[in-house]
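Archive entry: two folds, one per protein. Generate the first.
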Amino acid sequence: MQINFLYPMTVHATTKILRSASWILICLLAIIIGFYPSLYFILGEKFGLLKSKPPALLTNLLWRIGFYAHIIPGGLALLIGWLQFSRKLRERNVQWHRRLGKVYVIAVLISSVAATCIGFTATGGPIAQTGFIGLGITWFTTTLLAYTTIRKGNTLQHERLMIYSYAASLAAVTLRLWLPLLVYELHFFIIAYRVVAWLCWVPNIFVAWLIARRLRPAVVRI
């Protein structure tokens, strides 16, 4: 009887630990990749994904504006977005949560529009371009709707949409996790890049859906 009684508690405790560990890992990766854009200023532009871009594109002023308008606000969104899911922050300092949320929304809207624009020139042709454009539109839409729903006082829907929004933000993380593995397995960067253009965000949105559908109305309104 004692074993049967303790077993569910042990499973519950283990699940809780795994969820906490997973969330900590996600936050750490978000912080690391959030600072990633700074490397372009430290190491120069012959770095990262820019190495795959043709010289004509790199010298295009509009494209360069779009690129930096994407990576700088996008990095900021990654750095601060995870803080918005802290109930302690919301309960102890609602005003700080709201201010940080506004910064996140502005950063994402700028970054997603820029991402959608430069997505038309993504390496890998129409398959990759469609994938990144789809990500940009999804990121923009979920974030804008998250903002409009909280303005209407719909806290539950706001929280659900923010989960989708940050799942799209985390595409920057999952892209950098998947791409080296895909290049190693497929042996061709272009093919790997076409795959990762979809793989970096579609599974994220599916996981967000699994999490969002389990949410219940919160006791504390923000």
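Generate the second and append.
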Amino acid sequence: MIGRISGTLLEKNPPQLLIDCHGVGYEVDVPMSTYYDLPALGAQVTLFTHQAIREDAHLLFGFGNAAERAVFRQLIKITGVGARTALSILSGMTVNDLAQAVTLQEAGRLVKVPGIGKKTAERLLLELKGKLGADLGSVGGVVQHDAKSDILNALLALGYSDKEATVALKNMPAGSTVSDGIKFALKALSKG
């Protein structure tokens, strides 16, 4: 199994790259998150890889970091999620965004990714629970989960980005009600 590749970046044709590794050109499919962080053509590049061997093809998928590759491997284990869908998910959201969506059980954030419908999003959340994302667990964890989820949805509905909403939620006092949490988050966002 090819686990990492280092070489000269010869071609960039999203989502595929051609990497020259001592005279052998490897075609590697990458998520857009990795693609945007690539150096210029002719530069040296190192990617973590996942090799998929099928009856009709040998495919190589590349990732800018080990966390992306680990999430990709978790995603392709899920029934109905193939490599292309997994790449689409990683292209549409960061590993941290996906982990947060799983933690908060936010199917709406996954549905925004092209190719992911409501049923697939719900299956992803169910399958990834406990494997990706941290538990919000504390006393009354269900209440806290619902409050954070509602606050996040409210901030997104008000036009704040996932990143801004996440930062505002990080500093929120534990055990906040939805209305108090929204007030706190809006105050924090107005200062930034």
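Annotation attached to the second fold: The first strand starts at residue 4 and ends at 13. Residues 135-145 have pLDDT under 50 and may be disordered.
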